[in-house]
Design a protein that fits this description.
By secondary structure, the chain is mostly beta strands. 0% of the residues lie in helices and 48% in strands. Strands 2, 4, 5, 6, 9, 10 and 11 form a seven-stranded mixed sheet that branches. A four-stranded antiparallel sheet has the order 1-3-8-7, with no helix packed on it. Strand 5 and strand 6 form a beta hairpin. The chain is globular and about 40 Å long.
Length: 122
C-alpha cells in the first residue's frame, strides 16, 4: 500500500526554521514526481515546491524561493522541506504528494499524506 507520512511541523517564531519530512512506503520515491503543498485557513491549497522524478530538479513558488529548500534521501525514501526565515504568512497545513504519471510540476497528484501543521507566530 502506497503511503506518505509527513512530520516535523510545529510552532516557530518569525524568522525561525523548521524541517519537514515526508516518508514514503510501498513505493520508491525517486521514481515519482514529488511536491509539497500547503493550505492556510480560508485559502486555497497552493504548491510550495516540487521535485522531478528523473534528475531531482526542483521548482519553487515565488513566495518561498530563497527561503525553502526541497531535498530527497533515496536511501531513506524520504523527502524534506527545509524552511528558513519563516513568516506568519507561511502558517498552514503542509502536505506532500506523489505521482508517477508525469515527471514534475504542480499536478494533479494522486497520492497525498495527511499533512502537518506549521504555525509561525510570536
Amino acid at each position: 500500500q502506497l503511503q506518505l507520512v509527513e512530520s516535523g511541523g510545529g510552532l516557530v517564531q518569525p524568522g525561525g526554521s523548521l524541517r519537514l519530512s515526508c516518508a514514503a512506503s510501498g513505493f520508491t520515491l525517486h521514481n515519482y514526481a514529488i511536491a509539497w503543498f500547503r493550505q492556510a485557513p480560508g485559502k486555497e491549497r497552493e504548491g510550495v515546491s516540487c521535485m522531478a522524478s528523473s534528475d531531482g530538479s526542483t521548482l519553487y513558488a515565488n513566495s518561498v524561493k530563497g527561503r525553502f529548500t526541497m531535498s530527497r534521501d533515496n536511501a531513506k525514501n524520504t523527502v524534506y522541506l527545509q524552511m528558513n526565515s519563516l513568516e506568519p504568512e507561511d502558517t498552514a497545513v503542509y502536505y506532500c504528494a506523489a505521482d508517477r504519471t508525469f515527471r514534475s510540476g504542480w499536478g494533479p497528484y494522486d497520492y497525498w499524506g495527511q499533512g502537518t501543521q506549521v504555525t509561525v507566530s510570536s
